[in-house]
Amino acid sequence: MTKLPIGPVMIDLEGLTLTTLEQEKINHPNTGAVILFSRNYNAPEQITQLIQQIRSTRNGDILIAVDQEGGRVQRFQTGFSKLPAAATYAQQPELTEIAGWLMAAELLAVGIDFSFAPVLDIDCGISKIIGDRSFSTNQQLAAQLASQFRAGMCSAGMAATGKHFPGHGAVAVDSHLALPVDNRDLQTIFEKDLLPFKQLINEGLEAIMPAHVVYPQIDSLPAGFSTRWIKEILRDQLNFDGTIFSDDLSMEGAVSMGNFNQRAELALQAGCDMVLVCNNPTVAEQVLTHIPITQNSKREQRLKAMKGKFQLSRAQLLQCSQWQQASDQIKQFVHA
């Protein structure tokens, strides 16, 4: 039986174990990844088992992802190191790379391929949804700290995803709830928001997630659905050749793009390699069956580069002096 390649759709799960319907969805040729949330987690042993179950269900390759930035966005809590918000690393920059390693090493040890991190948005003092998830209000410092965080992730064996291209920090509206509009011109965005993206792309950044934000001076479509942003600016001008993930198509910021099938089509046409359909199982099924099943070797190659390099089991990690030292340093920093 031919093994399925990594498909272009990322789906989620309802609970702590797989249902029969979820097993069928995981085996759909268009499925390429599963994203896990807090509702899917209650202990390291349980999540390890669930991940093994997902992998053994799929006849072929599949990626497993999570949002484990630290601070407000950390899906796995009990049994994992509590990570600080990105904005706090400016106080002790030398801990940034250690934290990136720690986050990645702990996730890899339970079987997760990658976390959607680091956030490359600049905190402009406007966006509450970004806020302290950003490394800094200063673009040079944000780029430097994000670069160190990614270096830590990579040394553990994990690919990094920079988000939310070209920058979500200058709009007050939360794209989970509505469609934000950023009226700044391209030069302003290039000089400020794009600096961390440019730097990390030059350093080999593996993946990028565009924002559900409209920048009307550049294009009438939100960045994640815009050929102008994805193909012309990100691919051609910034020479990014890694993976592009859409942000979740269930977010209100994507509603203006039509129904879910249309959103998925538009995001893929604009140049996304994989689309996320979360928190709506019925719609995920519709998208899986709606998108034509196609072979795309370039897309598959990019997505394969997101696979985690699994080195240590959780038991081995907890015995390792690098983990013990890193977790102590981060614990002291969080409680300082």
| H/E series | EHEHEEEHEHEHHEHEHEHHHH
User: What would CATH call the architecture?
Assistant: Alpha-Beta Barrel
How would a textbook summarize the main sheet?
8 strands, parallel
Mean pLDDT: 96
What do we call the CATH topology?
Answer: TIM Barrel
Low-pLDDT stretches are none
Radius of gyration: 19 Å
Percent range for helical residues?
A: 25-40%
User: Strand arrangement, largest sheet?
Assistant: 6-3-2-1-10-9-8-7
Can you count the helices? Answer: 12
Percentage of residues in strands? 5-15%
CATH class category label: Alpha Beta
The best one-word shape is globular
Structural class estimated from helices and strands:
alpha/beta
Let me know the CATH homologous superfamily: Glycoside hydrolase, family 3, N-terminal domain
Number of strands: 10
Describe what this molecule looks like in 3D:
This protein has twelve helices and ten strands. It has 336 residues and is of the alpha/beta class. It has one domain: Glycoside hydrolase, family 3, N-terminal domain (TIM Barrel), CATH 3.20.20.300. The protein has an eight-stranded parallel beta sheet with strand order 6-3-2-1-10-9-8-7. α3 (96-110) runs parallel beside α4. The longest helix has 18 residues, at 139-156.
